[in-house]
Amino acid sequence: MGAGASVLSCCRGEFEESDNTGSEYQPLLGDRERQAVAALVKLFENDTRISFYDGEPLRALTVLARSDVHHLQLSAATAFSEISEYDVRAVPQEALAPVLYLLQSAYADVQQGAASALGNLASVSANKRLIVEMGGLELLVRQMLSPNTEAQINSVGCITNLAADEENKLAIARSGALIPLVRLGRSRDLRVQRNATGALLNMTHQAELREKLVAAGAVAVLVDLLHAKDEDTLYYAITALSNIAVDSDGRDALWSAQAKLVTELLQIMQVHKIKVQAQVALTLRNLASDARFQRAIVQSNGLDALLPLLQSSYTALVVAAAACLRNLSIHADNEDPIICAGLLPELMDLVPQADQPELQCHAIATIRNLAANNGSDKQAFIDAGLFDRFRMALESTDAQPQVLCELAAAFSVFALNDQLWRPVVELGMCHLLVRLLRCGHTDTEYNACLAIGSLAGKGHPEAAEELMRLWPRGLREGLARALTLPEYASSNVRPAVLWVLMALLNSRRAAVCK
Predict the structure, then answer these.
(1) Using CA atoms, how far apart are residues 370 and 348, in angstroms rounded to an integer?
(2) What CA–CA distance (Å, rounded) separates 63 from 485?
(3) What is the largest CA-CA distance in the chain?
(4) Does residue 513 register a pLDDT over 80?
């Protein structure tokens, strides 16, 4: 067993003379230390599958760890480091105590072995909190400040694992670790840089800590890491920036570097692996929650970079690109560029894909946003097969509730548009809206009411006639149901129903309603 070999070779070395004639003997061992070495030798002779986290093996290693002899400390640290490589599980406080003691050794190689062992054990949830509760965090921060590269690698790697636990994150921030982590993100050693960036990423999962990271100067470091040669480091940096972009304050901080940030992200999206490409698109989506970034991304030729992703055979890439376009389409000035970039037909093809409801929702919402500008020509939407695709989605028996809600919201926009409301009536799609009135989902029924009310409010004979035709074919029943259901008493559905009825009463066929 690898760990056993390391322990025994180090221990036996304490009894050997130096190769130089006349040199001094190694430091003499005390009785407890000799007994501990002998116990370990005996254990390995009898059983190579022993556990070092309890019983006699742990007691023997604890004696070595607390020895004043450098080689014995190193033996214990090496043993814990190597054992924890293959035997990773929840351990008791008694097993962590000697490792934490070794972390305070005067010898750098002992500290490195102890930090490595802690990093391995910190991959187990139960150990993460125990290490922090026993004061390990403060010792690791001290190791991070060391000029020794190996000490930095192991200590930062351990903090990365500790930061994966939600309860530990605030403790890490309070320990003073953020500024050293940010500084180590600029390390010339790729291993230190990777571990530091991973730790920063784990700390971006809470809004309060994102603010602290921004204050500690993390944004500039993460943006610079978009040039990282290591693929993992690059992915961590992009994801951390994506998390920071969730908050308006974070986007304000990122806007100061927007010219470099947007350009770098778009370049990365065109040349890196699928995982990285998808994360870049999601980062752009979060940035595009801000109107400034919505325009900046489009003006930086971001649409040309998104088109190949939308056409990809990898679902993750298509979803990420569609999610980004959904936010970009909110800005009215982006409607023409999106259409001119050839994205509209691609979005239309995504609408009927009932096996990908998330993708459907993004595509439908994007089309709805683009159609909301009543002043522009919508013929391109009709030519791209808008109503054929939406009909297919509405008629699908596999349509998910969230998809139906997005479809109803889109029709509530189409019904307001001077070019799009007429095809809804002429192509016989009103009966599909009537069907949505009885779907059992509050938001969907509300939007269906808005669409029907808008059509009735047009005052056009053709629209009124179609709605009157549907009055005994489900429309009356759907509206009555919405008025009588107790769960809709405090929702927006009932006012919408009353608005529909008023619009119908004011139409040319008011007598039929009576």
Answers:
(1) 12
(2) 74
(3) 120
(4) no
Q: What is the rounded CA–CA span in Å between residue 151 and residue 145?
A: 9
Average pLDDT for 327-352: 96
Write out the DSSP string of 143-205.
Answer: HHTSS-HHHHHHHHHHHHHHTTSHHHHHHHHHTT-HHHHHHHTT-SSHHHHHHHHHHHHHHTT
**Cβ-contact 88, 95 below 8 angstroms:** no
Distance from C-alpha of 236 to C-alpha of 160, rounded to nearest angstrom: 12
Angle at 506 between CA 501 and CA 510, to 5 degrees: 80
Distance CA 225, CA 58 (A): 42
Closest CA to 482 of 466, 493, 469, 470: 493
How would you label 293-328 residue by residue, b for 16+ Cβ within 10 Å and e otherwise? bbbbbbebebbebbbebbebeeebbbbbbbbbbbbb
Which pLDDT belongs to residue 9?
Answer: 34
C-alpha 363/C-alpha 322 separation (Å) is 6
What is the C-alpha separation between 109 and 103, in angstroms, rounded? 10
The residue type at 134: M
Tell me which residue has tokens 């040039």: 227
- Nearest Cα neighbor of 293 from 319, 263, 328, 325 is 328
Q: How far apart are CA 126 and CA 134, in angstroms?
A: 13
234-273 pLDDT tens trace: 999 999 999 999 999 999 999 999 889 999 999 999 887 8
Q: List Cα–Cα distances, 196 to 111, 213, 274, in angstroms.
A: 19, 13, 23
DSSP letter for each residue of 238-291: HHHHHHHTTSHHHHHHHHTTHHHHHHHHHHHHHHS-HHHHHHHHHHHHHHTTSH
DSSP class of residue 225? G
Position 506 confidence tier, pLDDT thresholds 50, 70, 90: confident
Q: What is the pLDDT of residue 2?
A: 40
Could you give the angle at the alpha carbon of 480 between the alpha carbons of 476 and 482, nearest 5°?
A: 120
Report the C-alpha gap between 428 and 158 in whole angstroms: 63
Residues 5, 44: Cα–Cα separation, whole Å: 9
What are the start-end ranges of the H helices in 16-165?
31-46, 55-65, 70-86, 93-102, 108-121, 125-133, 136-144, 149-162
**Which residue type is seen at 209?**
L
Residue range 197-229, pLDDT digits in tens: 999 999 999 999 999 999 999 999 999 999 999
| Count of Cβ atoms closer than 10 Å to residue 467 Cβ | 25
For residue range 20-45, list pLDDT tens digits in order.
444 444 454 566 777 777 677 666 65
